[in-house]
């Protein structure tokens, strides 16, 4: 029941987490997530720049959805 969320950033893809994930995969469920405009994530609409506030909002929405699925 332990979840670890790894957030991609600094213009790298989620593959940068590979060695980290291999260390913790037996103890945690691991979600690797690229924020909009980072790694391989695509921006589907709107401007191509994403503010820090928009990235925080995207992460918050992800966590809300994870929590809703876990407890529904």
Quote the beta fraction.
15-25%
- Strands ordered across the widest β-sheet: 1-2
Return Rg in Å: 13 Å
List the uncertain runs. none
The number of domains is 1
Percentage of residues assigned to helices:
25-40%
Distance between the termini: 15 Å
Overall geometry comes to flat
Mean pLDDT: 80
Helix/strand-derived category reads alpha+beta
Number of helices: 2
Task: Give a count of the beta strands, DSSP E runs of length 2 or more.
Answer: 2
Major sheet: 2 strands, parallel
What is the H/E order?
EHEH
Note down, in words, how this protein is organized.
It is a single chain. The chain is 38% helix and 17% strand. The longest helix is centred in the C-terminal third of the chain and has 20 residues. Helix 1 links the parallel strand 1 and strand 2. It is flat and about 40 Å long. The mean pLDDT is 80. 1% of the residues are buried. It is built from 2 helices and 2 strands, in the order βαβα. It is an alpha+beta fold and 72 residues long. It has one domain. Strands 1-2 form a two-stranded parallel ribbon.
Search tags:
two-stranded parallel sheet; flat; alpha+beta; 38% helix; single chain; 2 helices; 72 residues
How would you briefly describe this protein structure?
The protein has 72 residues and is α+β, with helices and mostly antiparallel strands.
């Amino acid at each position: 029941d332990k979840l670890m969320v790894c957030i991609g950033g600094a213009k790298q893809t989620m593959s940068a987490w590979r060695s980290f994930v291999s260390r913790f995969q037996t103890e945690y469920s691991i979600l690797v997530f690229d924020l909009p405009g980072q790694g391989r994530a695509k921006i589907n609409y709107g401007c191509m720049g994403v503010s820090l506030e928009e990235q925080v909002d995207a992460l918050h929405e992800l966590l809300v959805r994870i929590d809703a699925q876990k407890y529904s």
